[in-house]
Design goal:
2 domains; 43% helix; 14 helices; five-stranded parallel sheet
Length: 360
Amino acid sequence: MTFLENLFSKVQRHPKRIVFPEGEDLRVIQAAASFFEEKLGTPILLGDEKIIRELARRARIRLDHVLVLNPATAQDLSLFADKYSQLRHGIRNEEARQAMKNPIYFGTMMLHEGSVDGFVAGVNTSAASILRPLFQLIQLRGNFRTACSCSVVKVPQNRLGDEGVLYFADCNVIPNPTVEELADIALAAATLARQIHGIRPRVAMLSFSDKGSAKHAMTGKIAAATALARQQAEEAGIPAAIDGELHADTALSLAVSDMKNIKSPVAGKANVLIFPDLHAANISIKLLHEIAQTPVYGPVLCGLRKPASDLMRNATADEILVSAAIVALQAIEYRRLYPLDNDVPVRRESAVSGESPSWI
């Protein structure tokens, strides 16, 4: 069974409701229709119904089983405005009502209120405009300091990772993560990889140094984050192999790791790649997408109590569909996906709360 067949099969057994706030984009309309056709659940498109249905008609896309909702005229507009006003102290009701007419805010409130199981947007909206309402309205999981993101990459010929699938983090949220945040990112990405594949993640903490080959404060930070992530994974019972600091080729190529005589359960076999900062991760994922035309799914957000994805602006309809399937899978309890697996990831508890990055 291929990666996509396996992913779709898991979601088909537990279908979910996914909201697509950018419903007036043809790629999103196609993805929403395919989401239903693949029996993944119920898609909800937000936007002007006339525009959406005309775009679908011209493209010969059937929307028979796709819910189309205009936030400006929706029955829940007043209710959501009241809720938003209560949650965002100091905002007047009229301001709240105007905010809820924005499909991004309306879709986020649907997620907050449990009207949907997941949220997928970003093809026509800046990352800051997606993340701001999500961070305002969706709480962090009790065991996370902050939210982060993870992109899922499918490389050709299945020659890397697991079945050609790699996980890149953090590509979209934290500009310059601390040691503690890097450890959180590593465990969040490992948990997502485990949920999707049901196997032990092999996490590489990437750097311009191999296990101390270069001495610098930046490499020392990666080494410290590696040690902390290992400790926290062990304490929480997360079955992940974590190693660093490692060059990217050392992490991915057995030939390179053998040549350098680096022996570890991760070197040459990594399936989860943790980048030192947002510059490196964001640039890498976009170069891969543009130069190699490699499918990129997500980024999906990790650490929030409700699943969401902030898509790349040039995502295709197929990439939007698969991203929605991953978000749907995030909403499924691990025990329901793998009922015979007693080795379930459980994160440590922490009273530390997170704040939105300053750029959002």
